[in-house]
Design goal:
By secondary structure, the protein is an alpha/beta fold. It has a single domain (10-168, 181-185), classed as Rossmann fold (3-Layer(aba) Sandwich). It contains 8 helices and 7 strands. Helix 1 packs parallel to helix 3 (57-68) and helix 5 (98-106) crosses helix 7 (141-148).
C-alpha cells in the first residue's frame, strides 16, 4: 500500500478579496472544523493586506488562526507543496472573486490562491469554488463558463444576490459549502447548481 502525507480530512481553504462575503464564509470554516476537518487557511494578496470597511487584514488573520489553529499561508512558496506533498485532499476557494476565476480559467498561477489550485490539480484533487462577484453575469461570465466545463472544478451553488440593484452580481450560498465539498470528494457536483 502506497503511503501519502495527507492528514485525515484536511482541506486547504483560500479566501479572496470579496470582503463583503467573508462574514458568511467564516462560519463554514467553523462547521468544517466541527466535522473534524483540519483546515489549512490561505489568503489572497488582497485579503492578506487590505483593510476595508468590513475589517482589517490583521483581524482576518487572527480570526482564521483562532478558527483553524494555523496561521494563514500567504506566499507562493508556502502553498506550492500542498499538492506534491499531498497535504490536503481538496482546495476550497471562498469567496472566489471574478479575478481569481479569470486567472484560473486562463491557467495563470501567479498568486497564492491560483498556485494552490494548480498544486492540487496536478494530483487530480478537487477545487471547490464559491463565486462572489459583482460581474458574474457580465465580465466574469466567460471565466465562470470555462471553469464549469473543467474537470476537478466544483461550485458551491450560486445565484443572483441582489437582482434589481446589482443585476450582474452572483454569490454562492455559503451554507452549502460543506455539502459541496463532500460531493466534490465523491466526484459529484452538488445540485441544483443555480439558485
Amino acid at each position: 500500500m502506497r503511503q501519502t502525507n495527507v492528514l485525515p480530512r484536511t482541506v486547504a481553504f483560500a479566501l479572496c478579496g470579496s470582503f463583503c462575503t467573508v462574514e458568511a464564509v467564516l462560519p463554514q470554516i467553523a462547521r468544517l472544523r466541527a466535522a473534524d476537518w483540519e483546515v489549512l487557511p490561505i489568503l489572497s494578496a488582497s485579503a492578506a493586506s487590505l483593510d476595508t470597511r468590513f475589517g482589517t487584514a490583521a483581524e482576518l488573520k487572527a480570526r482564521l488562526k483562532e478558527l483553524t489553529g494555523r496561521a494563514p499561508l500567504e506566499t507562493l512558496q508556502q502553498v506550492e507543496p500542498l499538492g506534491p506533498q499531498k497535504l490536503a485532499q481538496a482546495l476550497v476557494i471562498a469567496p472566489c472573486t471574478g479575478t481569481t476565476m479569470a486567472l484560473l480559467a486562463a491557467g495563470i498561477s501567479s498568486t497564492p490562491v491560483t498556485l494552490a489550485a494548480k498544486s492540487l490539480l496536478r494530483g487530480g484533487r478537487p477545487i471547490v469554488l464559491a463565486p462572489s462577484t459583482n460581474d458574474g453575469l457580465s465580465g466574469s461570465a466567460g471565466a465562470l463558463a470555462a471553469l464549469l466545463q473543467r474537470k476537478n472544478y466544483y461550485f458551491v451553488p450560486f445565484g443572483q444576490d441582489d437582482s434589481y440593484r446589482k443585476p450582474h452580481s452572483l454569490k454562492s450560498d455559503m451554507t452549502l459549502l460543506p455539502d459541496t465539498l463532500d460531493s466534490a470528494l465523491n466526484g459529484v457536483q452538488l445540485q441544483p447548481l443555480l439558485l
